[in-house]
Design a protein that fits this description.
Elements (H helix, E strand, L loop, with lengths): L2 H20 L4 H4 L1 H17 L2 H15 L5 H28 L7 H19 L4 E2 L4 H4 L28 E3 L4 E3 L4 E3 L4 E3 L4 H32 L6 E3 L5 E3 L2 H11 L1 H29 L4 H4 L2 E2 L2 E2 L2 H10 L9 H10 L6 H9 L1 H11 L1
Antiparallel strand pairs: 1-3, 2-3, 4-5, 6-7, 8-9
Helix pairs in contact: 5-8, 6-8, 8-10, 9-10, 14-15
Length: 361
């Protein structure tokens, strides 16, 4: 098996494992052939690996993912530092060697400082912590919709009345205004006061990876063009000389610049994944919804506020007769959606929004 096939199989294996992890709770993976295969694999694992090892690993993973710690902050910082060391040691010298008249460092430096600025805000910024001093500030920001958020409900942990759209984070042990989710990479909650910073952090991180792919691929292309590798010949197994193929070229580039090729492939895999996550949050803030509301269950039924917005737009053109109860339900589903511009203003200019909201109350 040649080198390129091994790389392709590695990428496919990584992608399949990632999809299986992300879709682990879907009915498709819980039943049918894939569900049976998962159960069989689990049984085989328990026979091969001692149970106390498995139990210890699961316990440590639960602690790591469900408690406040600095592990993922350190991991993220380490990956960023290593990536920029590779950029300085390998990519920049090659670009200045082949294209000395261009500036190859201004854009990367700008992007990395921008990314670290928003990352710092996500880590250190108050997400909207609700306590005895701040509960009055948040309790009248949003009306109770009577379905997801009901008036008079008290947090059993904080012993405070829960404002609409708030939620108690079990990891941070606090209630958060307009709670979205707890992010292990920032070791902080994403809430009403830092959701905009979180989205900008994701977008700036995507910009870094896209620029990294551009500069890495350009450096390899310039190297290939300079040494005219595509015009060279290679010796086949039978001893004959043949024109170089893309497989052989890729293998040669990997053996010559393994760190550049590894970074290029890694970023190419991460961009769609992080990009999808970022687009999901862009959609949420444009519809004035949160991840918590997206999956919240009310009255033993699955209520999906994001889908309700889509369904509402689809049914506008249909001439149907609705009862008053149906109309009330429809209005409740889009209570917090105030239009795209106001929704964005509410997320990215939160302090001004809250200040104006208090003045109008």
């Amino acid at each position: 098996m040649d080198f390129l096939n091994i790389v392709v199989l590695y990428v496919l294996g990584f992608t399949i494992c990632l999809l299986l992890y992300l879709c682990a709770d879907s009915n498709f993976l819980k039943s049918g052939p894939i569900g049976k295969l998962r159960k069989l694999s689990w049984k085989l694992l328990r026979h091969i690996v001692p149970w106390n090892w498995i139990e210890a690993s699961l316990t440590q993973a639960h602690i790591l993912l469900n408690s406040r710690n600095q592990v993922f902050r350190v991991l993220f910082g380490t990956m960023m530092v290593l990536g920029h060391i590779e950029f300085i040691l390998d990519i920049v010298p090659m670009l200045y060697r082949f294209v000395p008249d261009e500036n190859h460092v201004v854009i990367p430096i700008f992007l990395v400082f921008l990314n670290f600025y928003f990352y710092h805000k996500c880590c250190m910024e108050d997400p909207g912590i609700i306590n005895a001093k701040t509960v009055d500030r948040y309790k009248n920001v949003y009306p109770y919709d009577g379905r997801m958020f009901k008036s008079g409900v008290t947090c059993v942990t904080c012993h405070l009345e829960k404002p609409a759209r708030s939620k108690h984070c079990s990891i941070c042990d606090r209630c958060v205004h307009r709670f979205d989710h707890h992010c292990i990479w920032t070791n902080n909650d994403v809430g009403g006061l830092n959701h905009g910073s979180f989205v900008l952090f994701l977008l700036s991180h995507i910009a870094i990876m896209v620029n990294g792919v551009r500069m890495a691929s350009r450096s390899l292309y310039l190297y290939t063009q300079h040494y005219k590798l595509m015009q060279t010949s290679v010796m086949a197994p039978d001893g004959s000389m043949q024109s170089i193929t893309l497989t052989v070229l890729f293998q040669h580039l990997f053996m010559t610049f393994p760190r550049i090729v590894f970074m290029l492939v890694s970023f190419a895999l991460l961009i769609p994944m992080v990009g999808t996550f970022a687009l999901y949050h862009v959609f949420l803030i444009s519809a004035n919804q949160t991840t918590n509301e997206r999956y919240k269950r009310v009255s033993n039924t699955d209520y999906n506020p994001v889908e309700s917005v889509i369904l509402n737009n689809r049914t506008k053109s249909r001439k149907t007769t609705k009862t008053r109860a149906d109309e009330k339900t429809r209005r409740t589903a889009i209570t917090y959606d105030r239009g795209l511009l106001i929704n964005l203003y509410e997320v990215f200019f939160t302090k001004t929004f809250l200040s104006n909201n208090r003045k109008h109350k």
